[in-house]
Amino acid sequence: MSQFDPDTDLPKGARPKEQITTDPSRPSERMQFRPLMIAVAPWVIASAALLMLPLVFTNNSALTIMNQMSITIVFALAYNMLLGQGGMLSFGHAVYAGVGGFACMHIMNMSDFFASFPLVILPLFGGLFGMGLAMIVGAFSTRSAGTVFAMISLGVGELIAACSVIIVAFFGGEGGVSGDRTYAQPFFGVEFLQQIEVYYLTAAWVVLSALLMYLWSRTPVGRMANAVRDNPERAEFLGYSSRWVRFYSFVASGFFAGVSGGLFAINYEILTEENLNTASSGVILLVTFLGGVGFFFGPIIGAVVFTLVQTVLSLQTELWAFYAGSLFLATVMFFPGGLAGLIMMHVPAFKMGRARLLIVPYLRTLLPAAIGILGLAALVEMMFHFRHAATGDNEMTLFWTTFDSHAILPWIIAGAITLIGLGIARATAPSLKDAWNSANTAPASQTVKGGAA
Amino acid sequence: MSTPALELKGLKKSFGKAEIIRGIDLSIGKAERHAVIGPNGAGKSTLFNLITARFAPTAGTVKLHGEDLTGLEPFQINRKGLSRSFQITNIFPAMTVFENVRCALLWSMGYRYSFWDMVNRKRDLTEGTEAVLEQINLSERSHLPAGTLSYAEQRALEIGITIAGGANVIMLDEPTAGMSHSETDYITDLILKVTEGKTLIMVEHDMGVVFGLADRISVLVYGEIIATGKPADVRADARVQEAYLGAALEAEH
C-alpha cells in the first residue's frame, strides 16, 4: 500500500544537507535552518494563493465553489489522518463532521449567547463536539483496525444517521436545523453578511487546520500512527499500545472533521440528515482516495478536483456522478497512489533533470487519449439523450455543436473520434513507456528504473 | 542472591488438547547470555511468545526482575525493560530505516503519546537514532525504506529496533535464520556488541552461534527443558546428545 511519510515528502535537499554536516559542534544549526525555510514555503505560498484567489474569481458562485472546496479539504485531510496515516478505513466519518455542524447550528440558534459570540471561533466548537463524539465511539471502535473497525464505523454511521429522524430536538428531523450566522457578535465590524467575508473566514480555518494536521503527523503520536498502521504488533513491542495510538488519531480526526462541519454550518446555515449519512461518508472516502492517501497533500488535490467535478461539471451534464465514478475507478485501478502519487511519481525524473524528455511523448499519447475520452463521453451523452429526452426532442448540444441525436452521422463522428483518439494513444503508449524509463534512468548508470506509465 | 533478570515458574501452554509447553522452570541471571535450543516444534518460539505476553500462559508465572508479568500487555512488558525480535523479520517496511529506529526510541525517551513535540526538531531523538544506526552499521542506509534493505540488513535493523529502547533484557528469536556464513558472523558480532552488559535470551539453530555466544544453554524438547547449563556441560550431557545435539555436533566436527 501507499504510505504517508513526511520525511520523504519534504522537499529534497533537506536530508542530504543533514548528512553532510561536518561541524560536530554545531550540528543542529546546520541541520535545521534550510529545511525550516523549505518547510515553511508551501504554507506561505498556499496562504498567499488563498488571499489572492478572490481577486481572480470575483463572482459569488466562484466563492461558493471555493468555500465548498475549503470545507472538503479540511474534511478530507481529517479523514486521511485515519485512512492514510492510521490505516483505519472508516465508512461513517461524516457523522463527526455532521454532529460538529449540528452543534454549531444550535449555538447559532441560542440567540442571546450567540449575540455575544464571535463567529470566527464557531468551527472550534464544531471541532470540540466532533471530538467528543469521536472519544465515545473511539473508546470501543479503535480496539482493532481492519474489517472490525470498518464495520463498527459503518454501524455507528448508520445509527447516528438514523437518529436524525429520532432525536428531532438535536437533528431537526427531515427539515434539518437552520440558523443565521449574521446574528453573531460582529468581528471587528465584520458581520459575515457577504460571501467574501465568509470566504476569508473559511480560508483562515483551512490553513490553520491543515497546518495543525500536518504538524500532528510529525509528533511522536503521529509518527507512531504510521508505525501502528504498518505493523501494530511490532509497535506494541516498542512500548506503544496500538489501541491508544489509534484512539488518539481517531479523536484528532474527529476534531478536524467537526471543524469542517462547523465551517459547513457557517457557509450554508443549514444542516440536514444529508450531512450525516453514509453517502457523505462515501464521498469523503472517494475524495481522499482520489487525491491519494500516501501523501499529506493528496486529500487537498482530491478535494479540489472532486469539488470542481461536482460543481462545474454538474452544470454541464446530468451525468457528472458517472464521470466522477469513472475517474475514481480509473484512479483505484491504475494509480493506487491517487493524483498525488501520480505527481510524486515524476519527482525522480525532475531531480535528475530529465523530466523534459517526457513532454513530447506525453503530448503524443495523452492528447489523443483526451480526445478519445471526450469522444467516448460524447457517445455516453448521446446515448443518455437518445434514451431519456422527451419524445420528439431530438436536438441536443454538445461541445458547442447542436445536432440531432437520432441521426446516424453524429454517432459515426463521435465513434470515429473515440476510436482514432484511443487508437493513437494506444499506438504511442510503448514509446511513452520507453521515454519514461529513459527519463528515470540516470545517464551514467542504468540502475534506476521507473514504473511503467 | 540477587534477583534473576527473568524467572519462569511452572510455565505451561496448551492449544486445545495439544500441550506445547509442559511446565518450564528457568532462571536467567543479570547480564547472562542464554540460548534456548531444541529441535523444530519443540516450542521455542511459543516460549518466547509466552514470556512477552503475545500468548497468555495456561499456567505458571513469568517474573522480570522479580516482578510478576501476569496479565500485562506486550507494550507494558516492553516498558518494564524487556524487548524482543521476531523469527520472521518484523519491521516497518514502508517507513525509512531512520524512522524505524526513531519509533523504537520514542517511548523510552519519554515522548509517549505527545502531540506537541516535533520529532524532527528533537536533537536527542536524532542523535540517539544516529547512534543506534551507527551501532548496526546502517547509517548509510538510513533514508531508504526499510523494506528495500537486504535480508541481513533487515535482520540487523530488527536487532537495532529491539535494542534501541534501552531494554536490559533482550530476546532474539533466531536472529541468524536463513543467513549465509559471512552474514551469520556479521550478525553474531553485532549481537555481541549491542548486548554488552545486558541479559540476552536467544533462540538459535546455528550451533556455531550458540556455542560462540551463550554463557548458558537450555535444551527444549517437546515443551520441556531437558538440560540447562554451561555450553561444555550441555554438550557432554548424554540426554541432550541423544535427543538433539548428536547429529549437529558430528556435523560440526
Helix content range of chain B: 25-40%
Number of helices of chain A: 20
User: Greatest contact pair?
Assistant: A-B, 38 and 42 residues
DSSP helix fraction of chain A: over 70%
Strand content of chain B: 15-25%
Query: Mean pLDDT score of chain A, rounded?
Result: 86
Tell me the overall shape of chain A: globular
Proportion of beta-strand residues of chain A = under 5%
The overall average pLDDT of chain B, rounded, is 89
The rounded Rg of chain A comes to 25 Å
Radius of gyration of chain B: 18 Å
Q: Report the uncertain regions of chain A.
A: 1-32, 445-453
Q: Quaternary status of these chains?
A: heterodimer
**Largest sheet entry of chain B:** 6 strands, mixed
Gist?
Helices cover 71% and strands 3% of the residues of chain A.
Detailed description of the structure:
The complex is a heterodimer of chains A (453) and B (253). Chain A has 453 residues and is an all-alpha fold. Chain A has helices spanning 6-9, 14-19, 27-56, 60-86, 94-109, 111-115, 122-141, 146-166, 168-171, 195-216, 220-230, 232-236, 242-268, 278-291, 298-316, 320-334, 338-344, 347-351, 359-388, 408-439, and strands spanning 177-178, 270-271, 395-398, 401-404. Chain A has two domains: 40-325, Orthogonal Bundle (ABC transporter involved in vitamin B12 uptake, BtuC), CATH 1.10.3470; 347-445, no CATH class. In chain A, a hairpin with a 2-residue loop joins strand 3 and strand 4. In chain A, helix 14 packs across helix 15. The two termini of chain A are 18 Å apart. The model of chain A is unreliable at 1-32 and 445-453 (pLDDT under 50). Chain B has 253 residues and is of the alpha/beta class. Chain B contains nine helices and ten strands. Chain B has a six-stranded mixed beta sheet with strand order 6-7-8-3-9-10, sandwiched between helices. The model of chain B has no long low-confidence stretch (mean pLDDT 89). The A-B interface holds A 1, 3, 5, 7-8, 15, 27-28, 31-32, 35, 215-216, 218-224, 226-227, 230-231, 233-242, 244-245, 248, 252 and B 52, 54, 73-75, 78-79, 83-84, 86, 90-96, 98-99, 102-104, 106-108, 111-121, 123, 126, 143, 161-162, 165.
